[in-house]
Amino acid sequence: MVDFKDIIANEIYDEALGLTLEEIRNLIEIPADEKMGDYAFPCFRLAKALRKAPQMIAADIAARVSGNEAFAKVENVNAYVNFFIDRAFFAGQVVTEVADKGAAYGRSDEGKGRKVIVEYSSPNIAKPFHIGHIRSTVIGNALYKLYDAVGFDVVRINHLGDYGTQFGKMIVAYRKWGSEEELAKDPIKTLLKYYTRFHKEAKEDPSLEDEARETFVRLEAGEPEEVELWKKFRELSLTEFNRVYDMLGITFDSYAGESFYSDKMPRFIQELKDKGLLIQSQGAQIVDLEEYGMSPAMITKSDGSSLYVTRDIAAAVYRKEHYDFYKCIYVVASQQNLHFKQWKKVLELMGYEWQKDCIHVPFGLVSLSDGDDIKMMSTREGTVVFLEDVLNTAVEKTAEIMREKQTQGVDIDTVSKEVGIGAVIFQELSNNRIKDYVFSWDKVLNFDGETGPYVQYTHARASSVLRNASEADLAAIRGGNFDWSYLESDSAYALVKLLYRVPEVVLEAADKYEPSILTRHLVDIAQSFNKFYHDEHILVDDENEKLAKLALVSASRTVIANCLGLLGIKAPERM
C-alpha cells in the first residue's frame, strides 16, 4: 500500500534541511481540520538550520514539491506545508490493493519469526462455564487472531482450572451424595449441585473442610481413587466446555491446565529455597514481598499443598523452555492484578529476566442489565448464569426478530446463529476491555446501533448490491483499472480513508492488546459505507461510473468480512 508519509518525506528531504528522512516522517501530522489538508508538515525545526523564518521555509517547500500525482494540491499556511491527497489516485490505490489481497488485506508480517502465547478462557473444571467467562474467552480469541494477522506464530492455551482444594471438596461431595446416573445425565449442573451442597453442609459441619483438604493432598500425591474421580470430572467438563467453544468457533492448541504442572513444582520450590527466597510462616512457605509494597506470595500451604503462584511459576518457566516465546499474554480479570504483580516479582527475584515478556491483559466486570453484578454470582451458592444459555437465548431472540421482519430468502436457522452469537461477541469486544459494562439484550441485538448485527447487516447490504450487478460487471471489477474520478465525492473519500487505515488499526489493536480499537473502526467503516450507499447511485447507466462504484462496494465488503473474522464473527451474505 502506498504510504503517503513516505512520499511526503521523500519529496521534502534535502540535505540542507539538517534532518534525516525518518525525522522528517515523524514530524508529519494529520490536521484535526480536514480543510487544512490530509497531512501537514511543520517547518519550525528548520528555521535554525536554514536561517529563515518558518513561513518562508514552508512557502519554498510547497513550491518545490508541487506536482506529485499523489496530491491534488500542496500549499503553505503560515509555517505549515499542507498536502491534499488526490482523491482519484488514492481511491485507485486502496481499492486495487484490497482487490489484489482479498482475505489477506489488513494482515502483515510484523511478527515474522517470533512466537506469542495467548492464555485465555481457562474455566474451572467441574464448575459452570458461566457468562463471567465470556470476556476472557472472546478477548483472548480476538488477541490470538490479531497477533496471527500481524505475522506472529501464536500458541493458544486454555489453562484449565483443574487443580486445587476445590477438587478435594468436589470429590468429598460426590462420594457422600453423588449418583453416577445423575452425573452422566447433566454433568456440570449436577456437579454444581454437589458443590453447592458441600458448602451448605460445611457451615454446619466444619470437619468437611478438613476432609476436603486431606482429599486434595491425596490427589496431589497421586492416590488412584482420587485421580480416577478427578479425571472423570475433567473429561465430563471438557465435553461440556467444547460444546460452548464450538458455538463460538473457538479452538485451542493446548488444554494444559494447572494439573499439568503438578510434577514440575518441586523443582521451583527447591530453587526458591536454594536462592534464599523461601521462608516459613505459620507452617506455610512464602516469599516475603513487603519491601516491594506487596503482601507475601504463598508458595505452599501448611498442609504442603500447592497454590496458584507456585503453579504459575512452573507454567511460565515450562512455556519459556518449551516454546521460547517472545511474549506470553495472560487474559485474566483485573481482580487478579495483585496475583500477577506478586508472581512476576517472584520470577524476577529468581533471576528470570524474561518475566518482563509475560504480559497480564486485565479486563473489567460485566453485569446484567437488571443490576446483578456477575462478580456477585457464586458457584458455592449455585447462583450462576450459564454462558451456553446466554448464547442460545441470543440465537433464539435473533430468529424471532428475523421472523418478525419477515426476512425472505434467508436460512434463518443458520443466520440467526451467526448473528446472535456474533452480537454477543461484538458487544464484548466493542467496550474498552478494562471498563466494566452492562450486558443488555436491547443493545446487543439492535440492528441499527453500533452493534454486531448492524455491521453484519452492512456486509449483507454490500453483498446484495453485488448480487444485483451483472456477471459481466462482476468479472470487470475483478481485474480492471477504472476511472477513479467517480470516487471523489466526500462520502466515497471518507470510506476509502477508513479502508486504507485498516492494516494500521489491526497492528495498533494488537500492540495495545485492545480489540475494541478494531471494533470501533469497523463500526466507522459500516457507518461510512451506509452513507456512501445512501448518497450515491451505484448501479447507474454510465458503465465507467458503475464499475468504479461497484469496485468500492466490493472492497468494502471484503474489508468488513476480514475485520469481523479477526473478531471471531461470521459475515452473512444475506440477512
Features:
4-stranded parallel sheet, Gyrase A, domain 2, Rossmann fold, 575 residues, alpha/beta, 3 domains
Give an overview in words.
By secondary structure, the chain is an alpha/beta fold. It is built from 23 helices and 12 strands. The protein has helices spanning 4-12, 21-27, 47-50, 54-65, 87-101, 134-149, 165-177, 180-185, 187-204, 207-220, 224-248, 265-274, 308-323, 337-349, 387-404, 412-430, 441-444, 452-467, 471-477, 490-500, 502-511, 515-535, 543-566; strands at 39-42, 71-77, 80-85, 115-119, 153-157, 279-281, 284-287, 297-300, 327-331, 358-361, 366-368, 437-439. A 4-stranded parallel beta sheet has the order 5-4-9-10, sandwiched between helices. Strands 1-3-2 form a 3-stranded antiparallel beta sheet. A 3-stranded antiparallel beta sheet has the order 6-7-8. The longest helix is centred in the middle third of the chain and has 25 residues, at 224-248. The protein is flat. The chain starts with a helix and ends in a 9-residue tail after the last helix. Mean pLDDT is 92; it is low at 371-382.
Q: Can you give me a brief rundown of this structure?
A:
By secondary structure, the chain is an alpha/beta fold. It has helices spanning 4-12, 21-27, 47-50, 54-65, 87-101, 134-149, 165-177, 180-185, 187-204, 207-220, 224-248, 265-274, 308-323, 337-349, 387-404, 412-430, 441-444, 452-467, 471-477, 490-500, 502-511, 515-535, 543-566, and strands at 39-42, 71-77, 80-85, 115-119, 153-157, 279-281, 284-287, 297-300, 327-331, 358-361, 366-368, 437-439.
